[in-house]
Amino acid sequence: MNITNLRQQLAAFNQSQQDTFLQVETLTLIHQRSDFYDRLLLDLWKHFGFDQRNDLTLIAVGGYGRREMFPLSDLDILVLTQSTLDNDTQARFNQFFTLLWDLKLQLGSAIRTLDECVDMGKAEISVATNMLEGRFLVGNSRAFYDLLEHIHQPDFWKTDDFLQAKIAEKKQRYARYHNTSYNLEPDLKHSPGGLRDLHLLMWVMLRHYGIYSLSELFEQQLLFAEEYAELQQAQAVLFKMRFGLHLQLKRYDNRLRFDRQLVLSERLGYLGEGNKPVETMMRDYFQATQSIAQLSYLLLANFEKIVLKKEKRTGEKTPLDRYFYLQDNIISAQKNYRCFNDDPSSILDLFYHLTQYPQAKASVSALRYLRLAIGKLTFSLSELPQARKRFIELFSQPNFVARAIKPMHYFGVLKAYLPQWKNITGLMQFNMLHIYTVDEHTARVMQTLENLLNTNNESYSLCSQLFNNFDDRTIIYLAAMFHDIAKGRGGSHSENGAVEAYQFAKLHHLSEEQAKFIAWLVSEHLTMSMTAQRRDIYAPNVIIEFAKIVGNQTALSALLCLTFADISSTNKTFWNKWKEQLFTQLFYATQSQLQRGKEKPVDYKQLGLSNRNRISEKLSEYYTENQIIQINDFWDNCPLSYFIRHTPEQLEWHIQGYLEAKIPQIFVLVSSDEQQNLTQLFVHCLDMPKLFSTIAQLLSQKKISILEAQILTNNRLVFDSFVIAEYNGQSLSKIRCEQLQQALFKLLTQPQTPFKLIKKSMKFTPFNKKTIITFLENARLDQTEFEFKTLDREGLLAHISEIFNELNLQLLNAKITTIGERVDDFFVVSTQENRALSEEQKQRLKQRLLEEF
Q1: How far is the C-alpha of 758 from the C-alpha of 755, rounded, in Å?
Q2: Are 275 and 427 in contact (CB under 8 A)?
Q3: Whole domain around residue 633: which residue ranges?
Q4: Residues 585 and 640 in one domain
Q5: Mean pLDDT of all residues belonging to the chain
Q6: pLDDT value at residue 46
């Protein structure tokens, strides 16, 4: 058999599927591909002479067994033999498999006897599942049916054991994707609500009933008609997206990464300007995955209750209201849940009862009928006065976010209640900072706030203390609910969201004072973050201006809690100890400013002296008299802001480094905190030309990102601090820390050949955002401040610092903030004569930066 001809046949078939992708139903394409492989394998089986043997059987298993073949799917086959193969037959099968590999097919193959199949299936759930989906291709059909008979015996895998093993697999899989389908770069197969959830449902039905299709489930009355239609639609969406993605890729992958989404959306025929095609496609995806995740969970729970008899209620029924009752910690409703249709406000009552009974859960039937009722609504639940009353009551109940808000979000009740929530459901955020959609992020912000009430919560002790002391936490919760509600509509989402938050508060009969406070928090929810991360918070004018914005201690505390919850709910790594230190310092500096009066600045010189003296008093407890003299010599060279900008722990770290330094006035410290996923770098040495540029270039050469930087100098010595990370966002290993420390020390102590600056392309090409340079108004005559926003790329800071060198500018201070795929940097520069830049010099700097970036 000519392999060239086979390759041509395969290429022609692939091209035909490419050409007809949009015209032909995806399920048809999937079956066509399965049939094509069937014909290919039958021809090869005959070519190698296996058709002359009655002791061999070829079986399609896994996805191939269920005829679910996408362009890059694995071709899983099982060769069933009556006995161990002789050498000649084994050699021919090796040739058979090699030919399939040479055709670039993703072959998964096994040769086993019947006993081996049964033994391995009993030992490994994945093997058992593969064989359950087995489909006879060619050979001894009697052997195939013998296998089916064995694997359907009650003792092979009991239905209950099979279900529990599969649910355990599901829990592990969900954990890898943060237990939500609302990830911005999901996996079409394995993410929550992906095709694997549909497979799980089908596997259990196949194991128990011997059926494997949605239509058969419907015929067995295991699905409502609405659920059947919903699952069919969801499956069609994911099938089409996965098939299209496989046509786009060269290697097997199901991850819908940012750099693949635009091409796929256009291939699928989504239209619109900019990111609109992706946004529409992903909303369809999220709707499909929510349907699959919810219904697979509910149907399997119903299966456990009805078929496996797991739920046997024998306790007394306790009425909760005219509709609901509690029995054995299960909340159910009377009269087949007609209340959801007859009195839709009762939907809110169900979740209110869940907050009142922390051990209770809603019955499976309640949730299934609730979903049906929501699907029939023609108005928003917030139009009902009784629903509004109940909704606000939820906010004063214990654990209401975990017990009510998050389940309401999951099952679509929030979308049915708030018209604004519908606008953000499944709404993409086109950046690498956020890993969740807007609605999922918002729900997590509210959960983060509620977690602060937990006495064991150690995420941010200051916020925990402040939030626990609030008399009216409803205000902060509602501000969290509305902080991103206006995203995706153009204009300022903070300002537009504030208007809608105020209207919501008045509609729900909150006081004028409460409504204005909620609206203010929404409008200013980015202000504290911008101040802490993009301004020099040790500059008196910055603190004075921020204090004017917050106005009072209550607003300051509320804004800190909201800001912390917002930042820490974007992704797991964005909040760290460095940020905690930054925001804590801003909080206390502003608190002090409010106590002094908005116009009276804090005396930072006195504050620096005070901090130094307070630490000095404790030195004698740990150091000898000679060491204390050395420490004071070191401190005498430090600018006073050094004692304000560093924590006592960092100062202690620096002291140890100084005392152990081999060369006076030169030492480098690198330390990683794996728990916080944080690496800190401190450089102390004599100031020298192009120092920042040199450090930035070395870090770039070592494939290390600068996430944040703080530049301090007393005109002779530098005290530079950095937060750094590997390019994948992880902290540096102990070995990498040691290597970096040695390389930097060598760089500072030995003459080096200048680095050759190599321009690198942008890291995140899917995003198209303009570079923005903004010079800030500043009355000082000795320095110029400006913001620099652009897409991140390798060696970015090295390039910027080279431009400073080229224009003979001094870098006085910098705050480097990497936010996902973009950088929001803040620089303070001056001329070599220690003057602020003239307008002409500003324009030249802006021009050079725009030329490069």
Answers
A1: 9
A2: no
A3: 603-650
A4: no
A5: 91
A6: 96
